[in-house]
Every structure is written in C-alpha cells, then in structure tokens.
Amino acid sequence: MTTADMIDIRDLRVRFGTVEAVKGVSFAVARGASFGVVGESGSGKSTVLRALSGLNPAWTGHMEIAGQTLTRQRSRDFYRRVQMVFQDPYGSLHPRQTVDRALSEPLVVHGIGDIEARIVRGLAEVALPPTIRFRYPHQLSGGQRQRVAIARALMAEPEVLLLDEPTSALDVSVQAEVLNLLSDIQARRGLTYVMVSHNLAVVAHLCAMVGVMQGGEMVEMISADDLRAGRTKHPHTTELRTLSTELEEA
User: Fold this and answer.
1) Can you tell me the distance from the alpha carbon of 122 to that of 171, in angstroms, rounded to the nearest whole number?
2) Is 57 within 8 Å of 41 (Cβ atoms)?
3) How far from 55 is each of 49, 52, 169, 173, 245, CA to CA, in Å?
4) In the chain, which end has fewer C-beta atoms inside a 10 angstrom radius, N or C?
5) Facing residues of 69 across strands?
6) pLDDT digits (tens, 9 = 90+) for 173-186
7) Cα dihedral: 239, 11, 162, 41 (round 10)
8) What is the C-alpha to C-alpha distance for residues 184 and 127, in angstroms, rounded to an integer?
9) Burial class (CB in 10 A: 0-12, 13-18, 19+), 187
10) How far apart are CA 160 and CA 126, in angstroms?
C-alpha cells in the first residue's frame, strides 16, 4: 500500500462451507479514485464488497482503509468513514420511515449535530426538492429513492462509498442521471468509490480502473480507456465486452 492509497486488499479469500467464493483477490484504490469490480452473477464480486463493508465477517487475508488494518469486528468510526449504497433502494429504505427519518438517523447514531441544516443540504446535494422530505419510500420514484439512499450514505460525511449495483434497478435514462450525480459528488467531496456491477458500460462510466472477476478470481485489471478500445487480455473480459457491446446495439 502506498500513502496515496485509500483502500488496500491483499489475498482476500471468502469461504461459504466447502465453497471458496473469493480466491485470493488483491487490489488497491487511490484516495479519491474509483475502482469497478465487474462479473457475472456468482463471480464473487458482491462477496468482495460485503467483506470490505463488514457485512460478511467470514474472510481471510489483509484489508486496509486509510492505512488502518481491518478486522472482522468494525468500529463506529469505520461505519462513519465507509458507507454503502445498495442495489435496491426500496429494500434498503425502511417502508414506514419518512425521508426525513432516514436522513436524520445516521446523524443521531454518529452524534452529529445541526441535523435540520444537514438534511436540507443533503437533499439539495442529490437534486431532490425539499417537498419530499416527509414522504415515504412508496411515494417516490425509483430514481428518487436511490437519490435518498445516496443522501443517507453521505450524511455522516464518509471518505469511501461502496456501491453495490447502484443503478441496476433503474430505467436506462435514470441510470445515467444517477451515475452523473455520483461522479459530481465524488469530484466535489474527493470520495473514494468501489463499485460492483455486472454491466461493463456502467462501471466504465464511473471508474478509471476495472477488475474483472470470474469464478471467485480477479482474472484481469484493466483501465476503462483500454476496455473501451478493446485492449483486453483475458478471454472472459473480451467476452463481457462483446456482450456489453451487443446489448448497447440491441
């Protein structure tokens, strides 16, 4: 790990019973950069993210955030520094909690004051009108729900966002809006992103570097520029790129 790295993962392994779902994955992400992990269902990409986030303690290897070695038990400081945005905003937001409650909760948990002003700023940052503040998730569109989920993740002013398929439940036009929003937020705040997706085009939109997973292994690390130009080395990366191109042309 260099002093410029925010995230350092070495020889990460995750086992479920007799099945090794992640097999010695290693990568580093520079402070303020974005790293994408792409692969088909069952490739192990989401398992990597869950181990990094603390949601799955059944891992071995070495992981660091900002030079601090991670253990299976994570501190409150870790959860302030690292936040996750999930695939399904409807599932990640409590159906009986208003937007106001969803945004105020992390502030209360972490003992952060000035709640009223922070909620107003939080909604503005994700381009949501103040009128939705006291609405419930079922009263919002899918894109609005995901913007609320992003705002909630930002409330505690984290340094790292872990993005688990953050646009896959959204329409294509809304996907682009949310990706552009995430890009703008990263530029303003200097955040570090790790994004998991099955969609190469989505990952390449946001991430300068991409790790391709197959069967629990990271079979290739490639820049988004090389990916777009077709300068792939591993057959599985070439296959995913071809499929992604076919889908875009369909």
Assistant:
1) 24
2) no
3) 9, 8, 21, 31, 33
4) C
5) 64
6) 888 999 999 999 99
7) 40
8) 11
9) exposed
10) 17
* Domain residue limits, the chain: 5-249
Which token pair is 143?
């894109």
Which of 193, 216, 204 minimizes the C-alpha distance to 240? 204
Half-sphere exposure of 201 (CA within 13 A, CB side): 13
- Residue 26's pLDDT band, with cuts at 50, 70 and 90, is very high
CATH code that applies to domain 5-249 = 3.40.50.300
Alpha-carbon gap, residue 250 to 247, rounded angstroms: 5
**In this structure, which amino acid lies at residue 220?**
E
CA 74 to chain centre: 18
The predicted-structure confidence for 33-72, as pLDDT tens digits, reads as follows 999 999 998 999 999 999 999 999 999 999 999 999 999 9
Phi, psi of 143, deg, nearest 5 = -65, -40
CA atoms within a 13 Å half-sphere pointing along the CA-CB vector of 35: 25
Count the residues in the chain.
250
β-bridge pairing 68-69 and 59-65: antiparallel
Answer yes or no: is pLDDT of 203 > 50: yes
Geometric angle at alpha carbon 101, from 150 and 193, rounded to 5°: 15
Q: What is the pLDDT of residues 80-97, one digit of tens each?
A: 999 999 887 667 788 899
Contacts of 245 (CB under 8 A, 6+ apart): none
